[in-house]
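Recap from last week: sequence in, structure out.
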Amino acid sequence: MNESSVDIAATAPVRKHVSMTSSFALAGANVLVAGATGGLGSRFVSQLVAAGAHVTAVGRDHGRLEALDLPAGHTLALDLRLPNACVAAVDAAAGRGPLDLVVNATGVVAFGTVADVTIDTMEELFLTNVFVPIMLSQSALPHMAPGSAIVNISGVIAEQNLPGMATYGASKAALRSFQEGFAREARRQKVRVLDTRPPHTETGLASRAIEGTAPNFAQGLDPDTVVSIILQAVTDGAKDLGSAAFASDR
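Predicted structure tokens:
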């Protein structure tokens, strides 16, 4: 979901793109990671575990979930696009106590002109990239502890859409728009909603497009670095993480 764009400059210092609130501790946090077996999701799991968090990992593939090597009962095979699956995922994590952090690393990508993209692809893009984050947020919010956070990844494509990626970019822009409004609602419950917009990242997602063929992207960011920057933003109390925050010279 981060195979977004390739040529958007990212030169401004991070302090201009991140506003801060109180800090957040990962050690001991009760965390739900959706899309936990993907290129970014698996890195979130490993870095969160290394930081001392208690992670519930949700994905669709039993075998890939087992490869995460989490304790028994900390993985859940679910297709979050299905009715009540987001509720089941949240209930599993919330069974260990209030949720401190929800990371949504689900997503699909498609390529092709608007004239060529199919209705089925449009539906899948919006179901996975927009509906799932909304449903997961809706399910999680009642279980979130004060001072907790929800992280979604809209990507740099939500800042500037591109030809050949217009429908994919529209789904990510819709996610970003949702979070702008939802963040204000969640703030009443002292829950932070963090939109993150990393540039093209080497997760392999572009090679698994649900339709079309990826353009020749320039070398993308290292996924471990991207996850590290996002988790640092979480612990720093950031409320927004634009593409410039991932600049190599930041």
